[in-house]
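Worked example

This section walks through a single chain of length 175. The input is the sequence exactly as stored; nothing has been trimmed or padded.
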Amino acid sequence: MIARTAPPWRTTASRGSLSVLLLVVACVAVLAVIGTANGAPNRVQRPADRQAEIVADGYLLDQLNIAAAGPHAADGDRSSQVEALLQSMTGELVPGSYETILVGPRKEDSFPVAVYSYWEDSSFSGAGDDPYYGRACRIYSVGDEAVTAKSVNCPASVRELPIGVTLTSEGWLFS
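Given that input, the structure is written out below as tokens.
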């Protein structure tokens, strides 16, 4: 007489393993749905990104406010003064630095700008990591009192490197 054994899916041990497996698959599915709903994750912020932010929110914003308050500001054309400064700076290195500024098309009194910061880190090994660019994207708006900066995520049309890049109005969220 042959002893009958239960199929593997009916034993208590296999039911426990099956339950754990189903739980893991369900968790992975939930995490995948949540990740998809939240969109693509932001890039990891690197030191060069922070340097680009400092230039965008400090040096460049100061220069734009000086231009807006310049001698022709009384004529009521503050935006044209800001636009002229941005156009003269686009594609050029900020004096005494490794930052490059690129300007997109004007929309009323707002200007999309990408600031790139060249970075080479040699703090640990002395040999340095591969050089790279950080970036910060801003929309500068010319108001009655001052020029303001709004930090925005760089649209997909703004590439990682400032080489051969022309900013377009594609993907910028003006408000």
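What to look for: The first strand starts at residue 99 and ends at 103.
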